[in-house]
Input
Amino acid sequence: MFTRILQFFDFSDWSFFSSSHHIQMSILRRIAGVSVLLAVCVGSIAYYSEMRNVGQEVGQMAINQVDYTMKNSLPLITNPTKENLVKLNSILKIDLDRSDFVLIELYTPEKEEMAEAAQAGVESIDQQAAIHGKELLKQEQTTYRNFVTGGHHYVQVFTALKDQGEINVGYFEGLYRVSDAKWSAIVSRVYYIVGFVVFAVLGTAAILYPIICRLISGILSFSTNLAEANIGMLISMGAAIAKRDCDTDAHNYRVTILAVMLAESLGLSAEKIRTLIVGSFLHDVGKIAIADAILLKPGKLNEDEWTIMKTHVDHGVDVVKEHAWLAQAIPVVHAHHEKYDGTGYPSGLTGENIPLGARIFALADVFDALYSKRPYKDPFPFEKCLSIIEEGSGNHFDPMLVEPFIKVAKKFVTVPDLEKTEVLRPILVKYIDNYFQIILDK
Output
């Protein structure tokens, strides 16, 4: 087990860190973001928790000093004669000078004021403390509250005074000032604890980062291989059908490239373009179910043959629907023969009821059928192809897509040797690398 754990810290193989920079940075951004957020949250909780403890600690400091201050005064309190009260006031002033209290008030068991001592200039602080003074006097148990004024920290304390027989002989109320040195030491300790917590969180994240990278590198390698296998299957299936239909797979490359170029010009998302690529390659996969006598017939199909030919879209859906990765092709496979005015097949969809991917692909498919050589026809001149596309605006094609497509087509036809697969393949590979690479940027 220990050996397996050490393997995560073995960085002899740096291939992942050198070849997957964008993934590495994506992981780093996420871990850094989460760790900083966690550090802020945990650090804040630690800070407020420690500050609450500080309040309790300071309050206890004040209460502890009450016992020390009242040690010599208690005999006089238990016998509050006029002479003793004079002595009591004198003792309170002495105790005030050698303690951290700035105000001491003593009350009888009936909570009537018995004696008082205060440092000079404490009146304004006493006024602020008096806001809750009456509430404190209602309490029977030891009570304190912290407050800050003038940049200094004070504790207002109220506690019962008891003799040796635990009999209540009066009450003590005082204002305890926390010295700057004590407060600085307390705050420094709080910051140290919070800093340690934050450092622990960030340090843990720093340790986890390379471990996660090592773990995810294996997953990414497997995912990349799987994606490549899926894309290879996609291309092979499309090529097989294209070769059976027109003896070349260049058609699939051209229509896919054209469709992607138009989609990019429209600003479609990467997810939609990935779906369009899969649909474009598999648009005629249903023709595998069409007999050669119909599929390869050189002349015009009769009505019965045409009815059978049109079923290839439904067959195509049947082929791809059982495979989750291929099923994204369904909108294009099923609707690429629909027409904007509703005269297409198989469902007679109109306008924007036709999936956008199918509307985009229809332009690429028809243009390529017109512009390329087929067994039954020679290629049409480019200008004639554009003229036919423009005539189909609003009936066959989405009128909002025609003009952008014409701009794309003019750019596309400048590529030489468009009939050669070896020319088209590198172009398509770039699109596939761009839209199907394993990324973490979502």
